[in-house]
Amino acid sequence: xxxxxxxxxxxxxxxxxxxxxxxxxxxxxxxxxxxxxxxxxxxxxxxxxxxxxxxxxxxxxxxxxxxxxxxxxxxxxxxxxxxxxxxxxxxxxxxxxxxxxxxxxxxxxxxxxxxxxxxxxxxxxxxxxxxxxxxxxxxxxxxxxxxxxxxxxxxxxxxxxxxxxxxxxxxxxxxxxxxxxxxxxxxxxxxxxxxxxxxxxxxxxxxxxxxxxxxxxxxxxxxxxxxxxxxxxxxxxxxxxxxxxxxxxxxxxxxxxxxxxxxxxxxxxxxxxxxxxxxxxxxxxxxxxxxxxxxxxxxxxxxxxxxxxxxxxxxxxxxxxxxxxxxxxxxxxxxxxxxxx
Length: 341
Known about the structure:
This protein is about 35% helix and about 25% strand. It is built from ten helices and twelve strands.
């Protein structure tokens, strides 16, 4: 068998795509805080200070456009895009959440979809994948993904850059290259970034910081953001198939978040039950139906177990604790890696 190369990247919530994910999740939490039966499917786009929020909402809390706009501004400020942060880089290079100009296009959930959800069935259909690796010190996640995520979150928190990307490559389990993109204001040195990276991935690993040589303009000024464009970052990096749509801004009946989380749970349980070093889980569901098909595979994609489950959608949602306002925090922290076996 030849050597194994693995690579995974990670983006912090200051990255414009993930900022949009966070805004959608933050607003979803507001709806769930008011009404745990809220049905929400929101998409967000962000360019410069202009934010567009579109989608469908059915909720007993009738938030108006001004309230939704205020939630969006709060979300961006919570990420750290404050006037003080903007002053560090200059208004031409980054926005402040307080400046956000918000436009909304929101209607109610389609009655065609609602009739299925009202039967306690799934509000969408699709395929979903879960992965578990027997690495308890790394949250049962692949090492390259774990390192990329931890490094990105650590340097964003300690070094103060918000729009951070990290990429870690392993050669037979050993980190051999680490690329970091982190905003640095003119005059700021990248040596603390290099030191933080080497402390995590090792002195022998090649470190590249800001490959173009300059990274000042960032966030939605440097790049347009859109929800759902970082699914590989949200899930398992370069190590797994992914399915479903974006888990952010969707209430749990939509399945995009719930069945992805459930697939991860099934993979973890299956790995423990069969004593395997790695387990993959595929789940499929049909809109308006309760039945889901669960299939477990080993590392080489040999089928280990297959079953049909017919629990009401609400039972799965409650089992996973997803009917609560946990989405913004989960978006910022990460979907997986915090479970206990």
